[in-house]
Amino acid sequence: MWQAFVRWFHKWSSPKWFYTMSQPWSFWLGWAATLIIATALVWGLLFAPVERLQGNSYRIIFIHVPSAFLSQAIYAAIAVLGLVGLVWKMKLAFFVAKQCIPVGASMALLALVTGAIWGKPTWGTWWEWDARLTSMLVLLLLYLGLWALHNAMERPESGDRAAAILALVGVVNLPIIKFSVEWWNTLHQPATLKFTEAPPMHTSMLIPFLMAILGFYLASMAWVLMRTRLEILQRERKSRWVEDELNRFSEGQ
Amino acid sequence: MTLLPLLSSVFRREMQLAYRRRSDLANPLLFFLIVVVLFPLGVTPDMAKLAEMAPGVLWVGALLANLLSLDLLFRSDYEDGSLEQMLLAALPPTSLVVCKVGVHWLVTGLPLTVMAPLLSVMLGLPGSALPLLMLTLALGTLSLSLIGGIGAALTVGLQKGGLLLTLLIMPLFVPVIIFGTGAVQAQVAGLPWLAQLAMLAAMTTGSLALAPLLTVAALRIAVGD
User: What is the count of residue pairs from A and B with beta carbons less than 8 Å apart?
Assistant: First the structure.
């Protein structure tokens, strides 16, 4: 049992294995995500019932909440991958962590923009210096800082490790985002979904909502996988198998 | 050799270096003064409004002045190779980092704190708020130096690290400034302020425990290349 686990774990240190395996995975995850998100959005935006207080403007929740979820989940993933990379010296973990950054930053930006659009009709303002909004903005700045650090380093290997350390420090921000609405109790409403209680949403809204969250998770995974494949090709370009792979491409055309 | 003589020799060396670069030390203080002077010119000279903004203005000024001086924390030692020797020495590297950051606080954070009352009078902050302002600045700048040390170590190997350092570290300074200004503003408004002060102190002690470890890890990356 333990032996099998160790063997499985060691496989992850091989970029070649990951490259081969990730091709079908990114393909199927991408298609599943497209279908699920399309269904969720058509259902949520067109067929789900109108909300009693907010009218139709609430429908942006089907994009806003999933992207906000993902922006935090991806940051946590970057920190965990960074720790794995630092502790077990696994370069593949660094590759994935690096390519998570633009995906997570896009999600944070999407959450902020959709939040602003939602804020205008419901709160009467595009932006408020509310605890949740400010800490999401800080999260976006953390993502941008990580990316800038990667680009500033001459050797990509030192960029990997430096960004991992910075990501670990930035984890402090995650609980602040999560609990900001409870500690400060400002404009932003508390979480809709809780593990401990039944969701306060009607089923006809809840199902497309959960589907949208699942779809965003799958889409982000597919996106990270695709980006990581390119990162592997670039970083491992001196190895034999990448040369073969690239030759296979150029011959195929 | 035991730890203490080594540590005190490092401390003396740092203080001596700081003393010989006096003009570098004056720069953050002048910067602090100028930032604070710009606010009445740029926003409003109305004393009542300035008094309301004063805790925030003083904190932002102190934070920026601290940030400005952080780039020098490890740079000269890195460039002449002594940092590498220090990391190889018998001294535990975390205590070296604590020593260097401590001296940085003594020559920037502490003078900024001492200077704050003068500037707060210029901004019309009520005198009763002064002790708490100085206490939060003293605690806060120590925490800023400790957290900033991680950023300084991450960017020490880069030619133009200064601007990048700002981008990396500024988001991490946010909680410190929230609770630092929060405590002073609460006191001015006559509200309880102990909770904010306790949070600030917790952040300072927390960063004292954790930041040196991460700073050492970052320095090893810079030196290893």
Answer: 57
Show the domain range for B18: 3-224
A142 near B CB under 8 A: yes
Is this prediction's ipTM beyond 0.90? no
The answer to whether the CB atoms of B217 and A165 lie below 8 A apart is: yes
Distance from CA of B138 to the nearest CA of A (A): 22
Q: Is A166 on the interface with B (CB under 8 A)?
A: yes
DSSP state letters, chain B: --HHHHHHHHHHHHHHHHHHTHHHHHHHHHHHHHHHHHHHHHT---HHHHHHHHHHHHHHHHHHHHHHHHTHHHHHHHHTTHHHHHHHSSS-HHHHHHHHHHHHIIIIIHHHHHHHHHHHHHTT--GGGHHHHHHHHHHHHHHHHHHHHHHHHHHTTSTTHHHHHHHHHHHHHHHHHHHHHHHHHHHHTT---HHHHHHHHHHHHHHHHHHHHHHHHHHHHHHH-
Q: Closest to A138 (Cβ–Cβ): which among B154, B171, B217?
A: B171
Q: Report the gap between the CA of A139 and the closest CA in chain B (Å).
A: 8
Give how many domains chain B has, as a whole number.
Answer: 1
Pair B65, B115: CB distance under 8 Å: no
Q: Which pLDDT does position A15 carry in this prediction?
A: 86
More confident position, A182 or B31: B31
